[in-house]
Write a structure and sequence with these properties.
A hairpin with a 5-residue loop joins strand 4 (96-105) and strand 5. By secondary structure, the protein is an alpha+beta fold. The protein is built from two helices and six strands; from the N terminus they run βαβββββα. The longest helix is centred in the first third of the chain and has 18 residues, at 34-51.
Length: 147
């Protein structure tokens, strides 16, 4: 399987959150597991969406779901490390887009992981992918963000 490098423009990142690696997220070598890292990335994505006023499922029974995840682990992450997680959105289209995430070790400033999560708008009543509504597009439109 070929490795595709994740390269992001730093201007995409518009949201930051800090998380600490817990003991329950580590393997026997005291490093975070891939499952735990994926969970941290999901938590960061949900914090970002919440900050933009996007609910997990709206009144029309629609919500954003991730259908593709790319993850590039650059360096091992140890237990008790504090991580700065930066989140942004690549330009979106009618049915979805990509949320990009960069994980930085606070102590050294080193980037330890990068992720791209492709999302789509899903209608849970119709059980199918639907177009993004204008409210979500406006909330996620990257050119409207400011730090």
């Amino acid at each position: 399987m070929s490795k595709q490098a994740l390269v992001f423009d730093d201007n995409l990142f518009v949201f930051e959150t800090v998380m600490r690696v817990r003991h329950t997220e580590a393997d026997t070598g005291q490093h975070i597991t891939i499952e735990a890292l994926t969970s941290l990335l999901s938590e960061a994505r949900l914090r970002f969406l919440f900050s933009k006023g996007i609910k997990h499922i709206n009144a029309d029974h629609q919500g954003l779901i991730v259908d593709t995840l790319q993850l590039d682990i650059i360096s091992r992450i140890r237990v008790r490390e504090e991580l700065l997680i930066e989140v942004g959105v690549e330009p979106i289209y009618d049915n979805g887009g990509n949320i990009v995430i960069k994980v930085i070790r606070i102590h050294t400033g080193e980037t330890v992981a990068k992720s791209r999560q492709h999302f789509v708008n899903y209608d849970f009543h119709l059980n199918k992918v639907t177009k993004l509504d204008n409210t979500i597009k406006e909330a996620l439109y990257p050119h409207l963000f400011r730090l």
